[in-house]
Amino acid sequence: MLFAVRRTRAGPVATAVICAVALVGFVILARPSPSVVRAAAMGAIGLIGLASGRRRAALPALAAGVAVLIVYDPELASDVGFALSVLATSGLLLLAPVWRDGLRRGGCPAGLAEALAVPAAAQVACGPVVAGLSGTISVVAVPANLLAVPAIAPATLFGVTAALISPIWPAGAEFAAWMGHWPAQWLVLIATYGARVPAGALPWPGGLTGALLLAVITVGLLIATRRPLIRKLVTVVALGGVLGALPVRLLASGWPPPGWLVVACAVGQGDAIVLPAGAGRAVVVDAGPEPNAVDHCLRRLGVRQVALFVVSHFHADHIGGVAGVFRNRDVRGVVGPDWPEPPAGHAAVAEAAGRVPLHAVGAGWAYAVGEVRLKVLGPVEPLRGTNSDPNNNSLVLRAEVDGRSILLPGDAETEEQEDMLHYLGPDAVRADVLKVAHHGSSYQSPRFLDEIRPTVALVSVGLGNDYGHPNASLLARLARGGARVLRTDQSGDLAAVSTGRGLAVVARGDPPPAP
After folding, report:
1. Is the residue at 89 inside a domain?
2. Does a structural domain hold residue 428?
3. Rounded-to-integer distance, Cα 460 and Cα 465, Å
């Protein structure tokens, strides 16, 4: 709209008014969801600066707009999307013009200078918040934004055109939507493959500490780099650091570690356990609460084929991410307990599996693939009337990988644990590695824990969960028994590793953020 109106030689006030009308129309058309309203508010601030003829007027307008929006909806004060919108707009107002002009003075073409300055300014302004949330600093964000720029305008224009003409000319709207889907698909490809670039993100302290640290460093560098000599020095050091670390991260990423026997994926408050079954192949036990976390864990491990997907039981924190297991992977088999409750969870797994049948298995069932040997220990018989029947009818698996034993008790609680000890004896549950049952819940048999005698105990648990998991007394009991206890909420993905001197544990070190 700006491009069209400026060709009529309209003044800044008239241009701003016409564009404001278009902005309101776009909000109505796209529907006033929170993200659309935020974008419109930031766009309106830019129009105020345009109408006044003074770019500096946009900054007070931004402050006033933020104040009005927070008074109108106080929950925005803690909304991450709102914070990123405000910071990005601040970067575009304060940094982008200075950087663009500096690039043009250095001989950079006007269009390229604008294209470089805008995403760089937004990235620098938003960097502290993003680093605090993710515990990483992206080195591909600016190039990805540069590649995305050519697709934004056509995707938006074709989409708006399709929406506007659809009531009166459906065939034309269909054609406009078909045209618009190509640039939109380009944006999806950039996001997808940009996220998969090896070493595309450098590790950084997460949380409030990491955000404040990067904010202080960023402000200090912005002030210091006003001097040409310091600016050149910072550029050389930054490029040297990135380029110097890149080969190391590409060639020796350290994940997965050599000789890994089992990985407990950091999927939040849930379970997702991976056993290696050969190059690019694995046995996966449970899928965590949502698809992306387990998908990312499997991608980090290089798993392209799931020889067997095992569902310990059908609670959402174990099957909510089932679509992530199947995402772009060949899944050869699916098994679960002969206890269909809750029915919604059972139906979700069956639907995700599609043509791969979901088989019910019970105690005594065995399976072997590659170096993995699996056996179902429990439930020995169906348990009813317990504290939680679905938990106490979890499949309890004993796996052997490379001569080491691993016990995976799902969410089995006191009743099922005592039942296995009674019918199978303590030798049946003894293992080198224990995936602690039910995220470290206190509903566990002390005798069962003592009889396992694990060297390594892995606790799959979510940061800041509302259940009080894991129980401190239970972890202390495991530690007193000689187990090395680690938690995914503190250390991220956890791998038990077989070494020449025994068992070791490697932590990837990037736990997911709290819910």
Report:
1. no
2. yes
3. 12
**Interatomic CA distance for residues 139 and 197, integer angstroms:** 10
User: Which pLDDT value is given to residue 287?
Assistant: 95
H or E segment to which residue 146 belongs: helix 141-165
Give the C-alpha separation, 206 to 90, whole Å. 23
- Give the CATH number for residue 265: 3.60.15.10
Task: Answer yes or no: is 20 within a domain.
Answer: no
Note whether 301 and 279 are within 8 A (CB): no
Instruction: Output the DSSP codes for 342-406.
Output: SHHHHHHHHHHHTTS-EEEE-TT-EEEETTEEEEEEE-SS---SSS-HHHHT--EEEEEETTEEE
Host H or E run for residue 190: helix 170-195
Answer whether residue 335 is part of any domain: yes
Measured over the CA atoms of residue 65, residue 71, residue 73 and residue 78, the dihedral's sign is positive
Q: What span, in angstroms and rounded, lies between the C-alpha atoms of 151 and 445?
A: 59
Residue 365 CA to residue 337 CA, distance in Å, equals 11
| pLDDT digits 0-9 by tens, 13-66 | 888 888 889 889 888 888 887 778 777 877 887 777 666 666 667 778 788 888
Alpha-carbon distance 34 to 368, whole Å? 51
Answer whether residue 228 shows pLDDT above 90: no
Query: How many domains does one find in the chain?
Result: 1
| Calpha distance 378→410 (Å, rounded) | 10
State the residue for tokens 């697709």: 151
* Predicted structure pTM score: 0.61
- Dihedral sign from CA coordinates of 64, 69, 71, 77: negative
Secondary structure class of 82 (helix, strand, coil): helix
| % residues pLDDT > 90 (the chain) | 47
Any bridge partners for residue 276, and if so which? 282
- Boundaries of domain holding 493: 260-507
Q: Are strands 372-378 and 396-401 parallel, antiparallel or unpaired?
A: antiparallel
pLDDT exceeds 90 at position 363: yes
Tens of pLDDT, residues 390-415 = 999 999 999 999 999 999 999 999 99
> What is the maximum span of the chain, computed from C-alpha positions, in angstroms?
89
Under DSSP, the state recorded for 512 is: P
